[in-house]
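F.,

This is the one I mentioned.
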């Protein structure tokens, strides 16, 4: 995948898709900057990479805060000397409530992490990448960045639609500057976020949980939900030279769910 010795930053990499992405980059011999607000989980990801003979360092940062993001990018480049790729993956689902009932403070928090966080990361990543004249960025959106839903996640859905638009804008702005910007839109993926949402929907009832999982799998054209590693492999491909003519693209990874 031609990423050997590249420096890759992965935000939200203490678990789920971010962790899978960090591990996938390490497998192709990239040097991985692992970042999250979850220090314990982030360090676990680093240890997993090192146990597999890869190279990684943990950097704590809250992507919703500009000072922390700027400091993160500076620290990564101080440690590794460069920044070649980034997977801006940090995100939260927020509470479940319908639009008219959604608390303003919860709305703001989701937007600050999911949308503003991606913008802040790109803002400082792109500045570093412009210095070297090249780079590749992948932002994590969602199939909820393409369609709506009635399950009560309006802030999440709005933020993920915003990520798609932001990705397209940045891709066009920097297409002739050697920087590619793409997005992935995962569908239902087996992650801690998926587990939390299911817990809320079912109230922790194991019978209700089994029924919900049955309904989810029946809706999936592939007959199952996805796995973080399946998203991670797509992210690595988008960052590699194998995707050198791909920018502004929204890659849907959902087992066919949104084409029904």
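My design for it:
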């Amino acid at each position: 995948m031609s990423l050997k010795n590249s420096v890759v930053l992965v935000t939200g990499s203490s678990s789920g898709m971010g962790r899978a992405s960090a591990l996938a980059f390490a497998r192709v011999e990239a040097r991985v900057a692992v970042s999250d607000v979850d220090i314990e989980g982030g360090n676990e990801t680093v240890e997993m990479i090192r146990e597999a003979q890869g190279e990684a360092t943990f950097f704590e940062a809250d992507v919703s805060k500009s000072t922390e993001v700027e400091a993160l990018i500076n620290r990564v480049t101080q440690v590794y000397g460069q920044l070649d790729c980034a997977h801006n993956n940090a995100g939260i689902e927020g509470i479940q409530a319908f639009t008219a009932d959604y608390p303003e403070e919860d709305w703001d928090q989701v937007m600050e992490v999911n949308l503003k966080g991606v913008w802040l990361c790109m803002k400082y990543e792109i500045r570093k990448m412009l210095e070297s004249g090249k780079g590749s960025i992948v932002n994590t959106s969602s199939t909820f960045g393409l369609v709506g839903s009635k399950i009560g996640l309006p802030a999440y859905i709005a933020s993920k639609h915003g990520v798609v638009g932001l990705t397209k804008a940045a891709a066009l702005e920097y297409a002739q500057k050697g920087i590619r910007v793409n997005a992935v839109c995962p569908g239902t993926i087996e992650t801690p976020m998926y587990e939390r949402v299911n817990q809320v929907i079912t109230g922790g009832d194991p019978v209700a949980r089994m029924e919900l999982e049955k309904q989810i799998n029946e809706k999936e054209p592939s007959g199952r939900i996805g796995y973080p590693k399946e998203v991670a492999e797509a992210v690595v491909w988008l960052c590699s030279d194998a995707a050198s003519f791909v920018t502004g693209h929204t890659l849907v990874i959902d087992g066919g769910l949104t084409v029904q």
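The CA atoms of residues 202 and 211 lie 9 Å apart.

Talk soon.
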